[in-house]
Amino acid sequence: MKVLFNSKYKAGKELRYLQDCIENKNEQYFYNRYATQLIGLHSSDANRLLVSSCTHGLEVITRLLEFTCEDEIIVPSYAFISSAAAFTLGKSRIIFCDSRLDTATICLNHLKTIVTKKTRAVCIVNYNGYGEDLEAISKYCDSREILLIEDNAHGFGVFNKGKALGTFGFASSTSFDHQKNISCGQGGVLYLKNKFLLDDAHDISNFGANMSEFTSGRASRYSWSRLGSNYLLSEFSAAILCAQLEEFQSIQNRRKFLWLNYWKSLSTWSTETSVTLPPVGLENSYHIFWILLPSNLYAIRFIDHMKNYSVQVLPHYSALHLSSMSRKWQQLCSFECPTAERLSSTLVRLPLNNSLSAEKQNIVIEAALRFS
Ligand SMILES: Cc1ncc(COP(=O)(O)O)c(C=O)c1O
Q1: Is the predicted pLDDT of residue 332 greater than 80, yes or no?
Q2: Do 14-246 and 248-315+335-369 fold alike per CATH?
Q3: Whose CA is nearest to atom 16 of ligand 1?
């Protein structure tokens, strides 16, 4: 039996809601409104806007910031391409920061050494929904008048000390793409601390038209008023999203069970083979279960070994400071990020998805235990 890394998942009422949508059974934007409400229920009812992807949410944030070429924004090197690429829409310089080895989140100590008078914002990634350092990072940023942005692609519905991930800083963006715990194929939600920026975000996402003025009756027709694009979530995607959000708790419970089962089953083996497992006992989203191999050679051998048992395991991000774009584009600046390089070359993700059966997870565990 083959065990794929990812698999699509039907949570419940997706088809019914899509049908309603196609047959115009509800008022306009019904599912957009319903999804926004459900998101508030499971995460935070802060100012939020459904967008077509986490990447697009980050692009909206970039357009709101209007930084100049004198400004700097710090981003972890161990991150998805969009975590940095979204900011290339603006003029600011992008500086790469190193990560922590245990949680693969940004390293606050390194961050403190690379902040300058020009630093205007820091964008962090809540890797696997780990938010242990968020309070400290947020306090540090506040003390330096630096805006904190959360790339919260992995962290929907996770709380740290009672506060929802994605609401610690100036703004955040979450992903509902095809690999996330809650998915509508492609989608996301943008959070903004400042409610007065919501109209601006809406206009940016509405092709750059003055749609807020138009819909509130302050303008008799809409026209092109600022830089923007087509960033809003479609009603079809929102319908699927609602069906998934309705099952949020059972999805999370299942993923937590699978994640902890990996941890318990592999913990003795990991000590014997010098493999490191992710930290247990910290709040997280149970989005990714990864192992850190002792070297890149081991990681390649592990991936091949698992392939022999028909199990698909995958590395994750390539360190952005080593990318060819980073060398080519002079607005990108890197310091040494040895931990990002280590994560990039030795972190391997095991299959973890909403459709993973106990039988399939056992195949993964049995195969991993045979690796030495
Ligand atoms: C940290 C991070 N940011 C952004 C994204 C992009 O999300 P989306 O596909 O919703 O644009 C991903 C994708 O997995 C990610 O891991």
Answers
A1: no
A2: no
A3: 80
- For ligand 1, say whether the CB of 53 is within 6 Å of any of its atoms: yes
CA 232 to ligand 1 center in whole angstroms: 16
For residue 127, the ligand 1 atom closest to its alpha carbon is 1
State the CB neighbour count (10 A cutoff) for residue 2.
9
Q: Is the CB of 191 under 6 A from ligand 1?
A: no
Residue spans of the domains in the chain: they are 14-246, 248-315+335-369
Q: 């009756």: which residue's tokens?
A: 217
pLDDT digits (tens, 9 = 90+) for 342-359: 999 999 999 999 999 999
Q: Which of 54, 180, 182 to mutate to test the pocket of ligand 1 (most atoms within 8 A of CB)?
A: 54
330 has pLDDT over 70: no
pTM: 0.96
CA distance 287 to 182: 10
164-181 residue pLDDT tens? 999 999 999 999 999 999
Pick the CATH number of 14-246 from 3.20.20.140, 3.40.640.10, 3.40.50.720, 3.30.300.20: 3.40.640.10
Query: Is the CB of 181 within 6 Å of ligand 1?
Result: no
CATH class of the structural domain 248-315+335-369: alpha beta
Give me ligand 1 centre to Cα 319, in Å. 15
Å from CA of 31 to ligand 1 middle? 23
- Binned at pLDDT 50, 70 and 90, residue 55 comes out as very high
CB 255, CB 29: distance < 8 Å = no
Cβ neighbours for 75, distance < 8 A, ≥ 6 positions apart: 83, 84, 87, 94, 95, 96, 97, 122, 123, 320
Condensed to tens digits (0 to 9), the pLDDT of residues 195-221 reads: 999 999 999 999 999 999 999 999 999
Integer angstrom CA distances of residue 77 from 23, 117, 131, 319, 342: 46, 21, 18, 5, 11
93 near 69, Cβ under 8 Å?
A: yes
The predicted pLDDT at position 261 comes to 98
Q: Is the pLDDT of residue 294 over 90?
A: yes
Atom from ligand 1 closest to the CA of residue 83 = 3
